[in-house]
Design goal:
heterodimer, A: mainly beta, globular
Chain lengths: ~120, ~110
Amino acid sequence: GAVVSQHPSWVICKSGTSVKIECRSLDFQATTMFWYRQFPKQSLMLMATSNEGSKATYEQGVEKDKFLINHASLTLSTLTVTSAHPEDSSFYICSASGGAKEKLFFGSGTQLSVL
Amino acid sequence: GQQVMQIPQYQHVQEGEDFTTYCNSSTTLSNIQWYKQRPGGHPVFLIQLVKSGEVKKQKRLTFQFGEAKKNSSLHITATQTTDVGTYFCAGRAAGNKLTFGGGTRVLVKP
């Protein structure tokens, strides 16, 4: 099946710094990728839809200047958490849609801890 | 906006027993998908249901889409320890994005 690679798997950073997370579709082209945030034992909260070659579409309540999304190619989307704060600590996971069933293939996720 | 709710939130099952988790949408869906997320892992696609009243089976898992296309269920028979994880349903209304339910966290008692 299709593979989505997400990097890094975990990151620890100081408050005020920025962190970039990469999401790559390894064996298919993804014009659309999705970024989610997941708190422990909770569901996936869609943050934004990343569209190749255009601006991302953010969900209500998600700060676009805080969570910068760039989808520069058909296989790569990046999420940059700018000026990170401890409350940004969370599990961030990306997905891409592939195939006729529009099923989502998820990356392995990034656990972000902001000190 | 569209809401997708799952019950129960937690399911403690004795190994070998059956259980069912339910998914309900506030709006009529064009299709519904189910995903499984193992502890510490990422969600993995299980199945998609499209037709009203559709029933699909995957070994011990039976998925059903309601006649009104607003609810779905996942029934697991003879639960095994490998069934541990969180099962998410995700509904798509016409032209809209997938909306995930809150998930059912399954724990299996050996």
